[in-house]
Inverse folding.
């Protein structure tokens, strides 16, 4: 786990290392990283009073008439940016956003996750997550020219990006972010770096740092990295499979050696999974928030489209990795539908919120999906009571807009902005004439 820093450590480090600037980081509602620079002499005051900025220019933050916002740096997130020169280097800290009167701002995604984690804590739980983020390297941002034709776990001369991955892993470790695995993925030029599990708030900060680090290292090596969910037609898209578990005072709350069904899952674990299954169609707009996200969620490309759970079956949306004796603390569930372009603060909040709802409502875990769901007919799916995730952003927004649970988890401010923003995106897409339509119809109609 990364060391925890406090205000005194930060101020001492700035002085000793001659660091003149600290970047204050936060995200907008869609998960785009925002920052402004603060000089070393202002940091001490910022810890006490925060730093004011204009929130009206940040997507989803505030209307022009209520635009004043205050950013309070979180000293525990202090790190030097490894891609900046060491001499007179640049540091960063994540911030919590408040209103001028000191109240948490209800449009701050970090606050929304903190609020959901507080609900879990009040129920006796801490959430841990370990996401697997996939991405593509391309020659530049103008097209999809791949760097290699390597395949899953390949390490051959074809995998020319292994040096890029190594440099990225080293940079992440300098930023205090431990890495579990790093490998080539199934599609050409597609890669995955998995972060070692930690508590959900630290992991959301880590995901934001990870995405920037991948892009910075690529940029410094003259290539482009993208977390677009489905950049290449006919190839697998990029996911953010999210492993998650709840711990209570006795350890892993999902584990039960005496599970009568033989899954080694506790009642809490089963109810949590049932909550994910019940609310996944409603939170899909958050975990898969762009028009392009739904080009990945189609049958035939390993991405889950059916709302099911299983242990060995990778066509299911929720997978429970098999229990290994002596590894009780590793008991977890893996949600396979999210993609890496999601806002991690909101994504973790809706996953946790859905799981907690499952516990509160005492939901029953449906039967495990033991066969390949992709090969089932529509009639078989209907008979088995298996629902599908939304087929497009339009469907996802409709379910999200009508969801009282999502409104409760995210709050009115973010829920309303998300609906408005995504409806506008969907309307813009519906009016756009694609090259597929031109290729299909122009010469024959």
């Amino acid at each position: 786990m990364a060391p925890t820093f406090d205000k005194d450590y930060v101020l001492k480090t700035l002085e000793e290392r001659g660091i003149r600037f600290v970047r204050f980081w936060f995200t907008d509602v869609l998960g785009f990283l925002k920052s402004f620079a603060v000089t070393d002499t202002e940091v001490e005051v910022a810890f006490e009073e925060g730093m004011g900025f204009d929130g009206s220019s940040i997507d989803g933050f505030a209307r022009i008439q209520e635009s004043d916002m205050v950013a309070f740096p979180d000293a525990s997130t202090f790190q030097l940016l490894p891609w900046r020169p060491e001499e007179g280097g640049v540091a960063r800290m994540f911030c919590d956003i408040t209103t001028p009167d000191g109240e948490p701002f209800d449009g701050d995604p970090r606050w929304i996750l903190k609020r959901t984690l507080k609900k879990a804590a009040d129920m006796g739980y801490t959430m841990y997550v370990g996401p697997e983020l996939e991405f593509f390297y391309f020659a530049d941002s103008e097209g999809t020219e791949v760097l290699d034709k390597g395949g899953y776990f390949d390490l051959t001369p074809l995998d020319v990006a292994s040096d890029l991955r190594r440099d990225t892993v080293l940079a992440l470790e300098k930023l205090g972010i431990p890495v579990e695995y790093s490998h080539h993925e199934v599609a050409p030029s597609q890669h995955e770096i998995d972060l070692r599990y930690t508590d959900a708030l630290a992991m959301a900060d880590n995901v934001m740092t990870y995405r920037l680090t991948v892009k910075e290292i690529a940029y410094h090596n003259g290539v482009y990295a993208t977390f677009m969910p489905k950049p290449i037609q006919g190839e697998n898209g990029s996911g953010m499979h999210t492993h998650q578990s709840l711990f209570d005072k006795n350890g892993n709350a999902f584990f039960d050696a005496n599970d009568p069904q033989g899954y080694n899952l506790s009642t809490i674990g089963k109810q949590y999974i049932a909550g994910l299954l019940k609310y996944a169609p409603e939170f899909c707009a958050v975990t898969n928030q762009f028009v392009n996200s739904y080009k990945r969620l189609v049958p035939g490309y390993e991405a889950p489209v059916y709302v099911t759970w299983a242990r060995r079956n990778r066509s299911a949306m929720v997978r429970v990795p098999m229990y290994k004796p002596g590894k009780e603390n590793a008991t977890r569930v893996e949600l396979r539908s999210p993609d890496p372009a999601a806002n991690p603060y909101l994504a973790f909040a809706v996953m946790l919120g859905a799981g907690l709802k499952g516990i509160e409502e005492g939901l029953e875990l449906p039967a495990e999906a033991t066969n390949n769901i992709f090969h089932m007919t529509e009639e078989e799916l209907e008979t088995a009571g298996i629902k599908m995730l939304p087929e497009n952003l339009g469907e996802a927004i409709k379910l999200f807009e009508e969801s009282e649970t999502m409104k409760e988890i995210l709050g009115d401010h973010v829920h309303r902005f998300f609906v408005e923003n995504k409806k506008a995106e969907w309307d813009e897409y519906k009016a756009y004439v694609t090259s597929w339509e031109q290729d299909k119809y122009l010469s024959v109609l």
In short: The chain has twelve helices and 16 strands.
